[in-house]
Amino acid sequence: MPDRITPDQLLPLLAADTTFIDVRAPIEFAQGHVPGALNRPLMTDDERHRVGLCYKQQGQKAAVALGHKLVSGEVKAARVQAWLEAAAQPDKTLLYCARGGMRSSISQSWMHEAGLDLPLVQGGYKTLRHTLMAQNARFDDTADCIVVAGRTGAGKTKVIEASGNALDLEALANHRGSAFGRRTTAQPSQANFENALAMATLHIDLQRPVVLEDESRNIGSVHLSQRLAERIKTAPVVMLDVSMAERVEVILQDYVIGLQAEYRQQFGADGFARYRDYMEGALARVSRRLGGLLYQRIDDELRFALQHQAATGALDAHGVWIESLLRDYYDRMYDYQWHKSPRDVLFSGGRQELIAYLNERQNGNS
C-alpha cells in the first residue's frame, strides 16, 4: 500500500475486510468512529487534555514537547506494542487520527521504527466521516426500496432477516423501534449509527430491490436522514398479515423471553427485577396515549403476569397484557396511521409467503 490513502481510495477499502486503527483519544472514539475500528490511542483522554491546555497557553512547540514527554519510555513502548498487535494483517490495516495530521504521522513513524509500515488515512476521521456520509446520501437517492409493513408483533424483522439484499435498521440502531424497544446495551451515538448504516449499504446491491422495515424517522435515540425517512414512507409496500395468536407469540418471544434473558445475562440475580422495572416504566411512558382506564387495566395485567411468573415460573399470563396492548393500543394507532396515509401494497400474505415473494422480486422473477 502507499504511504497515505487518499479520499478517492477509501470507499473500496471501507467495503473490504480492512482493519482501521484509530489513534485518537477514547473520548473522540466514543463520539464517532469507523465501524469495527480498533481504538489504540496515542494519548489517553487526560494526556490529550493536558496537551491541549499547553497548546492554548504556550503554543504548538511546547505542546508537542509535552506530548513526547508524557508518551515516552515504557508508556511509548506499550502504545507501539498495542499498534503492532492490532495490525495482525499489515497489508489490510490502515491508521487514522482526527485529520490525518500529527498524531497519525507520529504513530506511523514510531511503527516504522518498530519494523512495521502502515499507511495513514489522508484527512483522518474527518475524511472517513465525509466518505461514509456521502455513501448514505448515495443510497438514499438511488436505492429501489420495498418496505415490509404490518401490525406490531407481526414479525417484520424476521422477514428482513430472511430476505436477501435487506437492511435491518433496528439492528443497526440497537433498538426495536417502539416504546418497549430499548435493549440492555446502549444505542450507538448518532454519528456511529450513520457510520454503521453507511458500511451496511456498501454491501447492498443497488441494482436489485432493497428490503427495509416500515420505520418512523426516530428509532429510539437515533434518527434516519430526512431523505431516507421520506423514501420509506413513499416506497411500495408488502404487507405481513398474521393472526393475533402469532403476534402475541412474537411479542412473548422478543419482549418477554428474549429481553429477560438479556437482563439476566447483564445483571445476573438482579436481572428480573430490572426487567420488571423497565417494562412497567415503558408502559407508564405511553400512559397518556392509552388513557387512564386502559392504562390501569393493562398495567394491572402486566404486574400480575410478572408476579405470576416470579412465583411459578410460568409465562402464560403474559399473553393477556400483550393481546390487550396490541388490540386496544397498537392496532388502533396502526389503523389510524394507515387510513391517514394509505400506501401502494404490492403483495400481502404470511411470513413465508412474503419471504418467497421478496426473493422472487430480488431475483427479477416478478
Average pLDDT for all residues: 94
Low-confidence stretches: none
> Total number of β-strand segments?
12
Number of domains: 2
Written description of the protein model:
The protein has 366 residues and is of the alpha/beta class. It folds into two domains: 4-133, Oxidized Rhodanese, domain 1, CATH 3.40.250.10; 143-362, no CATH class. It is 58% helix and 11% strand. The protein has 17 helices and twelve strands. It has helices at residues 10-15, 26-31, 45-58, 60-70, 73-86, 102-113, 124-142, 156-162, 169-173, 190-201, 226-234, 244-267, 271-285, 287-290, 292-312, 318-340, 351-362; strands spanning 4-5, 19-22, 38-39, 93-96, 120-121, 145-150, 166-167, 210-213, 218-219, 222-223, 237-240, 345-349. The strands form four sheets. The chain has a five-stranded parallel beta sheet, sandwiched between helices. A hairpin with a 2-residue loop joins β9 and β10 (222-223). α12 crosses α16, α13 (271-285) runs antiparallel to α15 and α15 (292-312) runs antiparallel to α16. The radius of gyration is 25 Å and the shape is globular.
Describe what is shown at a glance.
The protein has 366 residues and is of the alpha/beta class. It has helices spanning 10-15, 26-31, 45-58, 60-70, 73-86, 102-113, 124-142, 156-162, 169-173, 190-201, 226-234, 244-267, 271-285, 287-290, 292-312, 318-340, 351-362; strands at residues 4-5, 19-22, 38-39, 93-96, 120-121, 145-150, 166-167, 210-213, 218-219, 222-223, 237-240, 345-349.
